[in-house]
Amino acid sequence: MKRRGRTLASALLALVCGVSLPLAAYGAVPYAQIEGTGSTWSELIVQQWIADVNANGMKVVYTGGGSTKGRKDFANNSVDFAISEIPYQGTDEQGQADTSQGRQYAYLPIVAGGTAFTYQLKIGKQQVKNLRLSGETIAKIFTNQITNWNDPAIAKDNNGRKLPSLPIIPVVRSDGSGTTAQFTTWMDKQYPSIWRAYFGRSGLTSYYPKKSGSRMVSQAGSDQVMNTIKGFSGNGMIGYVEYSYAINADYPVVKVKNTAGYFVEPTQYNTAVALTQAKINMDTTSQLYLTQNLDSVYTHKDPRAYPISSYSYMLLPVGASDQRMSTAKRQTLADFMYYSLCTGQTKAGAYGYSSLPLNLVQAGFDQIAKLKAADPAVELTDRDVKSCNNPTFDGKNLKRNLLAEKAPKPPECDKEGAGPCGSETGTGEPATADTAAGAGDAPAAEAPAAEVDPVTGQDVPVAESGAVPVSGGTQDVYASPDTLSADRAGDRRPFGWLVVLELLALVLLPGLLAAGLRRRMAARGAAR
């Protein structure tokens, strides 16, 4: 009885002092360490989530290595979970099997982001920080058709701005990479004549093809791509990474021209706008449930949209007889992902990612529920997506996408034929009329007085803004907000039991502490 009282007292004290304890302290399912591998595109935010939940007694170990490695490790039962930007392909581009080898799984979207093009380019000793490139120019750079920074196509993208005669050195991934797969998918869809002539066939690849005799450099992992470009000998280099790596390195990224003719970078806002057009597989009977089709993202006509935006996915083990899983591991995985889908999303923007929209968070909750279906001992009570602390939505108006609503229109100096703007890139902050002007550049346009419709990109009178229309026809389901499929009465917070314990703390803690003090004083008196 004394031990139970001490445990409760410690738990209540922790709550009052703002310290989180593991669920095991409350007599719930204990935790066990879980291990995963895969995407480096997602790794920076995943490692932050891991650090956050460590204080709650959850031990999560994650090692990058690329999406291909993650899928293979999961299939070989050498990890508890994996993260990948693309689903299993059945057969990969090298003719090898790319399946789970019978291991049961579900795709769980975890975060959104933009594939960015970071570079080192100096005029004299001054680093260029506001480079603009069209998609066609990028495709030609990474297929060895444009090989010098003074190419007329690059000058045209930058409104006639002349760049030095300097060889272009593309830096690509040497490992099986989801970032490579997303980049090559975009080229295959948008610039097939350029990409397929270089690749030799249609489709994506996770292994970037490097031609002999080219200046192209291959590196394993997003971090090594980033380190190579910003290195001492990196002048002239350009490579592709998730936007977060450039922000972390305080390094510039290319502003990519979108369908509306504006050059934009992959801030959390521009990514959120673009992904309102992502078509999501909503067939719950399909193994591809929740996977993405980004064709409409690439061509979104909103001037704020960043065209190479996408989602990353966890491979969640859902088999009842999974040889690696136990109740404790499933509990750890469930609570880790609840944190990641809710509070963890609040950190996405600062790290160069973009938070998930409401309908994908709701679907993520449904996927996590499969852990309990596999093992009824897993505890999943008091989870309500409406109360998620997620920047894309609020519980009062579920049809709003707050990130897309807040996304500012790009300044006019970022439009094709104008500028370029003088503002730096790679800061994580959107370019606006207030920040666009720089020395020697065209003056910035004034900020629009109206709010902006997050789907159409058109000005909307402030009085009419609010609910966001869902794009597409009746057959297509897009990754824009949607209403919840269920609303459980009395379940208004993601971890409702905390409220109860907080109230108990206020009532019981003083007495418990006083009793403990009396016992210690009595023990000291007896010792004397």
UniProtKB/TrEMBL annotation:
Keywords: Membrane, Signal, Transmembrane, Transmembrane helix. Residues 402-454 are annotated as: Disordered. CDD domains: PBP2_PstS (cd13565). Residues 1-25 form the signal peptide. The keyword Signal applies. Belongs to the PstS family. Residues 402-417 have a biased composition (Basic and acidic residues). InterPro entries: PBP_domain, Phosphate-bind_PstS. This is Phosphate ABC transporter substrate-binding protein PstS. It comes from Nocardioides humi. Residues 31-341 form the PBP domain. The gene is pstS_1. The chain crosses the membrane at residues 495-515. SUPFAM superfamilies: Periplasmic binding protein-like II. Residues 424-454 have a biased composition (Low complexity).
